[in-house]
Write a structure and sequence with these properties.
Layout lengths: L4 E6 L3 H10 L6 E7 L3 H13 L11 H8 L5 E4 L6 H10 L3 E5 L6 H14 L3 E4 L1 H4 L1 H12 L5 E10 L1 H4 L8 H4 L8 H12 L3 E9 L8 E8 L4 E7 L6 E9 L2 E5 L6 E5 L6 E2 L8 H9 L9 H19 L8
Parallel strand pairs: 1-2, 1-3, 3-4, 4-5, 6-9
Antiparallel strand pairs: 6-10, 7-8, 8-9, 10-11, 11-12, 12-13
Helix pairs in contact: 1-2, 4-5, 5-12, 7-10, 10-12
Length: 334
Amino acid sequence: MDQIVRTAMIGCGGMARWHVQAMLQQANTTQITVVCEPSQEQYAQTAELFTAAGLDAPPNQPDLDRLLREHGDRLDAAFIITPHVFHHDQTIACMEAGLDVLLEKPMVMNAGEARSLIAARDRTGRRLVVAFPGSLSPQIRTASAMLRSGELGRVWNISATVWQNWGSLTAGTWRQNPVVSGGGFLFDTGAHMLNTIADLAGEDFVSVAAWLDDNDRPVDTRAAVMGRLASGALVTMNGSGEAIPSCASDIRVFCEKAILRTGVWGELLEIQRAGAKHLRKVKVPASLGVWEQFLAVREGRMANPCPPEVGLHMARLWDAIVASAAQGGQPVKP
């Protein structure tokens, strides 16, 4: 039998419950030992998932510091799924308590916090995986490997779009409170686009110009971003959180010898090589879930597909977007 990873769930909102349902199917590898959730309503909904699975609900300790003092020596890992503003401090507290961490996206609020997490990871020697489904998908891992190998030739342009009826869908929630969320659509659903582009590019941006529009909401819901990579490749990113009821994406990478098509979540991977008339599906390894990949990283069975260094690339890009938008779209250097 595989070793049981004793886990603390930090946050019990809707996304956390989605992950809990999958984790409860992995009793041979995972035990959710304790949760940390200040809302009794959210905790009650999470407890129902355990009851439905024939299990006792884990105790809830809303104070993370107290949870780590009282339960830390009986824990191996933490899965942090909380509002963005809490990610940095909660992750450091868990790593300093000796826990490996799977951290929900976006990793942190800015590049300074990203560097701080990397330093804490190095200081504590713990494992830190960021739960971006794009970077964790076999599609994006395969695409990145193809681009790095040189088989597709030089990258000329990258074009990305993501859209969702986010403005109306998240109205009145913490996601539209800029102090807690750190941004609007582009830093929430759009964070998948920023991260996947940073991952595919595999290099720094040297110039970024951006425009953000809030459509009379508390945070941005529409965005247009242009950038140049160190290699000279040009990148465009378009995000609309004011779409009709929908949620989808498209990414095209234009290379010397081929065109790649994928999505911000790694939902597909297609290629059209020089001489071919159509895009064709690229065969990739079977996909492992987010939690399964975290376990594989902990056990040394795979390299970390989304370490905090990837989160730093995205954070630097986000900081540049915010700076440029504040200057009416003037180009800035990240």
